[in-house]
Amino acid sequence: MTKEYEINEEDIAKVLNYLKLTDPTHASRDMAIAVLSYTHSTLNEMSFDNPEQLEQVIEDMKKK
């Protein structure tokens, strides 16, 4: 059984750092949490609704 992902301080800090570099106007703790929450729910939905698309996303990320 896989452990359910929980947003944590380390991940918030990493996303906030990324936002400061790429979108400083919207770089806030709340936005970092929103990004993490959205990403988690979107990928989770994709794993059920379109697993082939999720596999493609993962393969594309491996190439970067």
List keywords for this structure.
mainly alpha; 64 residues; globular
Can you tell me about this structure?
The longest helix has 21 residues, at 29-49. The protein has three helices and no strands. It has a domain at 8-46. Helices cover 73% and strands 0% of the residues. By secondary structure, the chain is an all-alpha fold. The mean pLDDT is 94. It is globular and about 35 Å long. The protein has helices at residues 9-22, 29-49, 51-62. Helix 1 (9-22) crosses helix 2 (29-49). It starts with 8 loop residues before the first helix and ends with a helix.
Mean pLDDT across residues? 94
Percentage of β-strand residues: under 5%
Largest sheet: none
User: Distance N terminus to C terminus?
Assistant: 29 Å
Ranges with pLDDT <50 over ≥5 residues? none
The SSE order reads HHH
The assembly state of the depicted protein chains is single chain
- From the spread of the alpha carbons, the general shape counts as globular
Rg computed from alpha carbons, rounded to a whole number of angstroms = 14 Å
Tally of DSSP β-strands: 0
What proportion of the residues is helical, as a percent range? over 70%
Number of helices: 3
Specify the structural class.
mainly alpha
